[in-house]
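Box 3.1 A note on notation
Throughout this textbook, protein chains are presented in two layers. The first layer is the amino acid sequence; the second is a token string describing backbone geometry. Keep the layers aligned when reading.
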Amino acid sequence: MVIKIKTSADLPYSEVTPEHFYRSRRDFMKTAAMGAAGAFAGASVLACDASAAPQQALTAKKSPFTVDRAKDALNTYEQITGYNNFYELGLDKGDPARNASRLTVRPWTVKVEGLVNKPGDYGVEDLVDFKNLEERVYRLRCVEAWSMVIPWIGVPFSSILAKVDPRPAAQFVEFTTLERPSEMPGLRTSALQWPYVEGLRMDEARHPLTLMVVGLYGKVLPNQNGAPLRVHSPWKYGFKGGKSIVRIRFMDTMPRTSWAVQTPHEYGFYANVNPTVDHPRWSQARERRLPSPFRNHQTEMFNGYGDQVASLYAGMDLRKYY
């Protein structure tokens, strides 16, 4: 099935993202330019040409699910697309942007299988209603103790669940990332067992905050950020978000997720942002909001989304189920 993304090439960018986002972005860029130059070793990565090709515009409505704009300044498009963890495209933070043009994302098919009433091979347009996209400004917290604030565009993952109709026996959903060595040079490394696999419990997947992302900053999602489909649950560390998803499988047992298989004493299945549970090699109590070189943000439980999601884990020992 061929991707049929509804675009509007003549739509002014200012009509896609509200004006106050632009004003904040300009102010943030001025501040970052003064303070970030030479501040940390990866600074040059943030300044690289991160665009593999001109990105098509997307029309999205504002969502009530958004961060406190007075508290969280948006990262720039250049920062978001130039500093990434996407090991299939390379292990260095700048590799995904440098190698993004190799990746072919049209046409694209997602295999839906397992404990589901409507299995099959779906095109992106079959899963995502491009007439009802939402723009949600979410925090992204990486387990490496850096963070960004990103204006994602997508649909609630629950809307996809409604289309494919998981069976009552399904307790988990597993996401598998594309494995295409000819276009993904990182697959030549032994950093992980490929393909990359992640997963959520079904109540996490159904939660209103969980988003199937197809764009950012009013544009179609760039390849280095996981085009054409990535999933994001903003209260979890970033590695929980599967990128360039080619398979969605519904299961009655917990998926064997990539990092939990590779290094189980460091990365658990749940990966909820928790300042009281340190990574074995560094503290998670504070984080650096890129492009700052300093850990000048206190890490919040559930990445600041505790009011919405804490009830999902009532009675669980979150130091054990990390």
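DSSP finds ten helices and 13 strands in the chain. Residues 1-52 have pLDDT under 50 and may be disordered.
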